[in-house]
Fold these 3 entries.
Entry 1:
Amino acid sequence: MIEMEQRAAGALNGVAIADALGSATTFMSHKRIVKLFGKVVDFIDPKLSTVHESLARGSFTDDTELTIVLANSILECGRVSSECFARALVSWAREKNILETTIIGPSTRRAILKLMSGERIDKAGSGGTTNGCAMRISPVAIFDVGSSIEDTKRDVEEACLPTHCTFIAIAGASAVCVATKRAIEGERSVMRIVDSAVDASMNPECSRCGGHRQRLHLRIEHALRIAEAADCDENLLTSLYSFMKGKRKALTEDAVPVAMAIFYYARGDFNRSALLSANLGGDCDTIGAIAGAMSGAYSGICRIRKEWIKTVRLVSSVDLTRLAGALLHAKGN
């Protein structure tokens, strides 16, 4: 049980640390990151960032904040509930005046506005195809340790509905959640973890979704082939940056396959995964959060750099280890 607690703590701390590492380089091109920083090896002051310039060094972004909002909604309601999360999301947005900022993604912003106006939950999340659901899904993975994959996929749907009620977004979140869950449960084969993620992305539970059933699993498999062929870190990063196709490289079909490829290439090592994500470019704080959940769960908190854990804890004043433990034991796991 102690090892499982360490892996659950690794998942949540992994989200926050990799998010914070990527906060300064988010939406930069890979070439610009190389030009400005050479190589990111630690937290950077985000003053050069185009979106997070107001943050302090070591601060996480809305990726982790929304992960915490989802986690607390699960603990409050004792289950994963779209209604509970929608209420928590609106409360968070009002308390922090989120709509007056530019830190949240377009899908989440539209959904919050609709929820505030009284729109039905699944309607509020319709059209959400960006990576905001995949980035925050790790609390479901922790809460559902020991549950069946089918039950977990239903919980993923509940967690995504208020902001990302589309097949592609839920497929991506399902892949990340199942991979993180398998790692927390103790699976030590990175390949088997990745295979389970691909399977989860093929048939997501999405009873109220709109949009096409896009074949995310093919994009994940393509990204994994890139990782398999890469003979060095720079080759991997340039190839993965070219692989991403969205204008801001923030679509689910960009972030999830690339994060999965980084996790696979790094063989589950959190410290490598987090730095690769921060050096990639594009929406790299979110890619880091996704890769960080999976690799943090695989590595466990004991293998994450202690100075990184300390820095993020001091800056945020949030005890993510305690929160992970509460989620893990909420159903008697």
Entry 2:
Amino acid sequence: MKLTVTPAPGSALRIVIELPPERFGAAINEAVRALSRRTRVPGFRPGKAPRVVLERQLGPSAVTDEALEHLVERAYRDAIVELRLLPLTRPEVDVTSAEEGQPVVFTATVPVRPEVKLGDYRNFNFRPEIETIDDARIDKVVEELRDQQAILEPVEDRGAENGDYAVIGFTGTRDGQPFDGGSAERMPLIIGEDRLIPGFEANLLGLRVGDRRDFDITFPDDYGEASLAGKPAHFQVELRELRRKVLPPLDDDLARQFGDYEDLVALRAEIGTRLRRNAVDKARHGFADRIIDYAVANADFELPAHLDLEPGQRDTRGLPEILVEQETEVMHDEFRSTLARQGMTEEAYLKVTKQSEADLHAEFRPRAEERVKVLLVTSRVAEAEGVQISDEEVEAEVARGRRQYGENPRLVRYFESDRGRNFIRSTLRRSRTVEKLIDDWLVAHPEHPPMPHAEAAEQRSVVGPETAASAGEVEVTDPASLASEVAGEPATETADGLGLATEARASS
């Protein structure tokens, strides 16, 4: 068997396999015996019908087709073993010569995982950036908490003003005729936020409950409904309810509504502590992202080094298509989850944006390619750093996933499968690798403020909710998958993100 290997686009190899004529002859003899055993031929016992009879009954190419199928399959398998390759998927096969008495020649194009040639990933010249938490930041959170405890009281002593909470009924017409979406019995809104047609809410100013007002307005040129864009309309509006927000006093009683705080000073101190902790967590995650970007930018992707290729032929000519396609599917499923949280179906989104699934995939693809690069590079860095994940750690993560995602049996089954366990292992390994690089940098720079891991991180699954759900839906497998949260998601800095709003609701 003669093998000729050359690069192909998308981290693939084009293997030309040439077999001597006698192997085709042997394969034909095997095919005759196999077909004869499987085919009932009148006048012949099973396994005894000659080739000419089989071809008369099954077709002139039946024997050679059968022989070629098995010959090509065996030869390809032998070639993969000889070349020490681990294909990512089945090859594309093109038989170029298959005549009896002549060498059989076929080409197998097979995608392989590219080898990552690491550049520098440690000697970066950037540092973590920790935001300073000042009184203004604390004041902002206090005002959010205060706003959450506000009440809405009826307005009876004046007309409507910007910032008021109103309920209106309205009827819209064009040329005296109502139009779709132009009427509502009870529409809640905050006056001045311009959630309706630009200029609409300005016509509500000064109205008292029960007042009506007629006015004309022109829809903007870029209005979503094409039949109304740039067109004038007439509206009749009635103000049915009017309330104003009344904030509670900024005092010690307010602080006590959010937990066991003696006074406002204690609440502010706790807010400052949580904000500073979040700032450190955010800085650590941002630092991790920059380290990963630095490592990827300095890495090269090559075809397997043990192959007999010229140096100029080692370029992968792109990433394996199967990896990019699967990561695109993961991103697509994450996008569906995001839409669902917003109360929208994918079908509705596509209709509004006038897109197709193919359009979405085209948008996702560049980011999917970057995510695959991150996967491959961080996996290679993990090897270089000697980071290993034990079976016990994987099982602990599977158990944590059972607790966290118990309401999703399909996801739990995926985590419990060999494929899911491999995904968890690789995710843990990548995460730990990046954390190791951060910790090593901090040791080398003792002058920098400490940046400990988030206190709650060990209580959560290392695979974030969206990534877990998408991985389980697509049933990804490493290395064709990639967790979008290499180091997790930093906490938000709203009152809800700090956990104080929840405490207030629980204690009220």
Entry 3:
Amino acid sequence: MSEPSFASVPRSMSRARLWVAALLALLPTMGWAEMKLNLPEPVSPLTREVFDLHMMTTWVGVWIMVIVILLVGYTLWKFRKSTGAVADQEFHKGFFGTWSWLVVPVLVLGLDLTIADRANSTFDQVENIGDAEVTVKVTGSQWKWTYEYMEHDYSFISNLKSKEEAGEYDYLRTVDNPLVLPVNTRVRFLHTAADVLHAWWVPEIAVKKDSIPGYINETWTIIEKEGMYRGQCAENCGVGHAYMPIEVKAVSRAEFDQWIGERVAEKQAAAELAASNKVWSQDELMAEGEGLYNTYCAACHQANGAGLPPAFPALAGSAMVTSDIPAHIDIVVNGKAGTAMAAWGAQLDDLQLAAIITYERNAWGNDTGDAVQPADVKAAR
């Protein structure tokens, strides 16, 4: 006896199977685990104002939709043709038909003015920068963030963690160096960019403002709860736009003071070491340079030096990298106008730059044997 074909299954059963499949598709899965139907819960006064304004306008829109749907539904049911209802050709001359043209716009305008008053108050708060205890300059560049604590003369670069380091779940959400901020402290952000438009935005703690090359925008926050808060570049800044996550670690003031003190001490020690007359061996520079290259350069030029032509040329086998040392130092320190090559002179010290350049000149089969010293970089500045 042959198996029954699908065509022989009753149509009602086929439809039932389709409905079951559709319902199963709607069931929660791991891919839906992080799906949320609203903005993240705010943890600062300003973002709470924005969140409350958002909720107010949302509920106003919901109730308008409900009223309109009920009114239209009631009208379709009450005056349906099957009950013998006949269209009133003189409706516009009646009381409702005459005055609704005035009443409805007045109600809508009243709602708009109510929202506008609340929004104006919120916008005033956005621009009320005021005095801050901590000021952080945030510089966006393709494709990383540079944070500078203005009161402490300390800065660092924050890069996307690789998939191997971050793991499957946290990839594109975590960075190697999160921004550390104290809670219950007024923090001012100075936003700018080194190349194209970026936008630093962490919804729980700060509003979004564009980072514009050659211009400073300001925002502020007072974080009320310790924890890790995540955001993303909110301005389409190029092909690496998705690779600019933001992490802010909010800690107690005592923990922040200890952290920033340790970082400043480390920076001073590194600066003294870079300024010393020590002559570094090629092996020492290569070991240091590999980690620095993978942190700061590999996103564009790739870990294997193959680059992403034409925007980011290959360094493996490059004539400039394998021949002219002064030109190599110059482009790393000062960048190249009209290209995506950023200037690293203001972001890294002489030792770090010397290590990166040495690594590039000897990795991936370049094998020049050169060992560029911090003194060489210092002389080229």
